[in-house]
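Input record, target 12 of the design panel.
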């Protein structure tokens, strides 16, 4: 059934029809002379350039790279020709960028849409445009392909966009502003002041015809007919036009779900981003039916699409973000891998850098991903990245480097251990109780963050003597004014001391180069622990690698319209304190994990005392501790555009018959 036109306020209907009439008259009767088009890289209204462009259109992604400059077994290297623009500067600072053009695989060239001479690297290639990427920062004009170059620009002339080569997006972005999040609207509340505004008058078909022939400022006038204030609208209709990319950005920045009135309009990084998660597409001919169709959406779908829109915006919103996305997309386009993320170099301060134990009673197992980090195997890393590419792009994970770990890699089938060719072993290493699951054998690293609690750290190390599944203990030393002294326990696994760069709780989250496992148990220096607890917590983490799995829990609450930090909930939790928690090497904080995975933390029932008897009081004893935590909750919610924390009543309780010691 068609929705009732009276649902829209009558005054709005009249105003819209008046605006429609004015816009239509402006379109039909304007006698203003047409503006001379800005010159483009090669003007396609000349016959010779039409022929050249026609030849360029025949090229595919198999024709754009001379692999004599790009070894598939080395990482991508780009050279950015000098140009005064924020995106050019951001690309020049990218980890793949070099100042030596002889080392480069791809050459980045900028243009403002005017005629200009090509750089010498263009002429040095075997064919025009080979190994080159042209970025047009002038959103008002389009450049035509001349050869085998990849073109990145906001709009393309009809039939000039090559989906397997080019990127349709606006490169004319500004430098990243660390305060932008403060002015961005939240994706909440669900109900905004205005619903999508749609013209319900007899001029609709005339407007559709007018839209097909309008351009520039005239389409801008027509555009106001489709929605009121962006920030007060749930959906924003975005018709195809020369200003489409700008309108799309405006909608996403306002937290408004884009409704693209075209099935053919190209979207930014449409081969990488799953735009169906954040936008709708309808043909313009369905304009009259769209409001009623959108009204059928469930509230959960609306909020998730707004959230995804915020994630997608973070890929294209500023020069620094766009540089990472563009280089990652180019890497996939030509199948040359990005470099691996360099680990944080650690300053070891124990004697000789490590306590040398007399002998190890257990075999240390290095993560296969840790091995990949050291060997930088291109073939494995690139295939891994491609397999999970869209998931990475659409979830908000960092794109700067090739991932060495993927926390959501699925498990092998249940009968994998019984067949040749797989390494899974349902009996845990060294004859200890079974870990279970069809995953490779693995161990965890214990990271103890400490400041002037030497006795507490020594107690934890002693507790971990002969602990199954332990790979190494790393003590992160936060006291910059003194070094560890005296006698320290020597156990069955290495104990290493790392001097923090500064005294901060964030020191525990650094991906130090001494970490050789995916699993990390983060421990405060006053925590009471037990081997059986650790073993069970490790088992639970292996089943939930994309979640925080730990013992002390907290929750968030709301008072007077503000998010607050709660000490203990009656039945639910939404936070796990990282003072005793299993985390993935690349996922370490409650807000970040909840944002990326949309999963709550898993609480493990603790059987032993939470404190190991250390006398020195902790941070929670300070008078303003909880007030500061309230401020953190509010700041992080504003930063993400919503509060990603999720409540859960799920707890993991060990079966005493299966876990020795509990």
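The sequence produced for target 12 reads:
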């Amino acid at each position: 059934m068609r929705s009732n036109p009276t649902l829209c306020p009558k005054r709005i209907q009249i105003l819209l029809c008046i605006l429609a009439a004015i816009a239509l008259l402006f379109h039909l009767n304007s006698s203003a002379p047409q503006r001379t088009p800005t010159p483009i890289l090669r003007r396609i209204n000349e016959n010779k350039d039409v022929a050249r462009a026609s030849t360029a259109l025949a090229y595919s992604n198999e024709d754009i790279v001379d692999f004599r400059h790009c070894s598939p077994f080395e990482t991508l290297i780009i050279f950015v020709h000098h140009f005064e623009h924020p995106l050019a500067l951001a690309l020049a600072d990218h980890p793949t960028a070099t100042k030596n053009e002889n080392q480069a695989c791809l050459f980045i060239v900028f243009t403002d849409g005017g005629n200009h001479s090509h750089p010498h690297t263009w002429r040095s290639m075997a064919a025009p445009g080979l190994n080159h990427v042209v970025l047009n920062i002038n959103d008002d004009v389009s450049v035509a392909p001349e050869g085998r170059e990849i073109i990145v620009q906001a709009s393309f002339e009809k039939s000039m966009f090559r989906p397997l080569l080019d990127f349709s997006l606006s490169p004319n972005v500004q430098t990243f502003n660390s305060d932008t999040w403060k002015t961005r609207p939240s994706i909440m509340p669900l109900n905004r002041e205005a619903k999508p505004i749609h013209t319900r008058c007899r001029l609709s078909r005339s407007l559709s015809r007018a839209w097909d022939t309008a351009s520039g400022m005239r389409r801008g006038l027509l555009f106001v007919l489709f929605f009121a204030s962006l920030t007060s609208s749930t959906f924003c209709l975005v018709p195809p036009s020369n200003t489409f990319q700008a309108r799309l950005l405006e909608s996403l920045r306002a937290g408004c779900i884009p409704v693209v009135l075209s099935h053919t309009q190209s979207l930014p990084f449409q081969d990488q981003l799953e735009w169906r998660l954040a936008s709708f597409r309808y043909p313009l001919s369905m304009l009259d039916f769209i409001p009623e169709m959108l009204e059928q959406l469930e509230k959960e779908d609306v909020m998730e699409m707004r959230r995804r829109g915020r994630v997608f915006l973070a890929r294209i919103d500023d020069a620094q973000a766009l540089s990472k996305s563009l280089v990652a997309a180019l890497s996939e386009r030509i199948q040359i891998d990005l470099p691996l993320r360099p680990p944080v170099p650690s300053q070891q301060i124990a004697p000789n850098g490590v306590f040398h134990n007399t002998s190890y009673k257990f075999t240390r197992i290095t993560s296969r991903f840790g091995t990949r980090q050291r060997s930088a195997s291109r073939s494995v890393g690139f295939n891994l990245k491609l397999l999970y590419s869209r998931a990475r792009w659409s979830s908000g994970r960092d794109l700067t480097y090739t991932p060495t770990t993927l926390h959501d890699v699925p498990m092998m089938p249940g009968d994998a251990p019984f067949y040749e060719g797989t390494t899974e072993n349902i009996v845990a290493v060294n004859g200890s109780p079974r870990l279970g699951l069809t995953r490779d054998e693995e161990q965890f690293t214990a990271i103890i963050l400490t400041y002037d609690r030497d006795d507490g750290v020594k107690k934890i190390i002693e507790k971990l003597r002969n602990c199954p599944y332990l790979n190494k203990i790393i003590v992160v030393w936060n006291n910059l004014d003194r070094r560890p002294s005296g006698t320290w326990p020597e156990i069955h696994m290495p104990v290493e001391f790392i001097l923090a760069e500064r005294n901060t709780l964030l020191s525990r989250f650094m991906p130090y180069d001494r970490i050789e496992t995916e699993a990390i148990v983060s421990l405060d220096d006053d925590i009471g622990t037990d081997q059986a607890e650790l073993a069970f917590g490790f088992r639970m983490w292996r089943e939930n690698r994309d979640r925080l799995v730990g013992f002390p829990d907290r929750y968030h609450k709301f008072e007077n319209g503000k998010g607050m930090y709660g000490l203990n909930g009656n039945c639910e939790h939404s936070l796990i304190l990282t003072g005793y928690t299993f985390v993935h090497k690349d996922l370490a904080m409650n807000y970040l994990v909840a944002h990326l995975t949309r999963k709550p933390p898993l609480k493990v029932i603790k059987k032993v005392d939470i404190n190991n008897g250390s006398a020195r009081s902790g941070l929670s004893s300070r008078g303003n501790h909880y007030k500061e935590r309230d401020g953190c909750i509010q700041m992080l919610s504003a930063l993400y555009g919503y509060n990603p924390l999720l409540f859960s009543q799920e707890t993991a309780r060990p079966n005493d018959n299966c876990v020795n010691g509990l």
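Residues 47-168 form one domain.
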